[in-house]
Amino acid sequence: MSITYHDIAKMIDHSLLNPTLTQADLHAGIDLALRFDVASVCILPYALKDCAERLRGSDVRASTTIGFPHGGHTTSVKILETRQALADGGEELDMVVNISRVLSGEYEAVAQEIAQITAITHDHGQKVKIIFENAYLKDEHKIRLCQICGEIGVDWVKTSTGYAPGGATDDDLRLMRAHSPVHVQVKAAGGIRDFGSVMRVREIGVTRVGASRTADMLNAARESMGLEPIEAIAVAAGY
After folding, report:
1. Catalytic pick from 13, 88, 94, 155?
2. In a 10 Å sphere around its CB, with 0-12 CB exposed, 13-18 middle and 19+ buried, how is residue 68 labelled?
């Protein structure tokens, strides 16, 4: 079965998380996401409500982050963030685990937090991605997190925030796909910067990619399929 432009575009979460992005940058980024018809816009939390309103009626979902970028918020704060994001129109939430607790082997507390955020999100009919931040973890931590997320029933497990020393690696993506049940998808974030990389991780089983170079990626996809390029909108880097 041949791969279509729609197949590739709907793998992309267009990232607008750089703290230096201005309101004009954010609006331009949302317009770019609409023009390329990506899966979602992952935007700074304060801008989510405006983003959701701008995306209303489109096939592009509004998303934001929880506990970003280091995961060290208390669970009660993450719950407040989650409820606010859902009230603001968030459809997909990307939550960072408590990295310190993972490294300390406090998996019961980690699981309880993931379960609470997942339950609230699913009760509102929306989806959740759990960010591991693999650059700081050993394989044993990643595997246990995959098991926990599978038992809870999260929607995606995600490699990275884009702010750690490293991002998605093929080895980590293979490990996460191998240790996650089929109902849990895998998202690659950090370091996926071209169409070739998107296709490579797709072969591993990745269904979503966090990206700031969306226009370049998707116009390369269109070129490979013999389609006309889409005129890009100038916007600052998302990460």
Report:
1. 94
2. buried
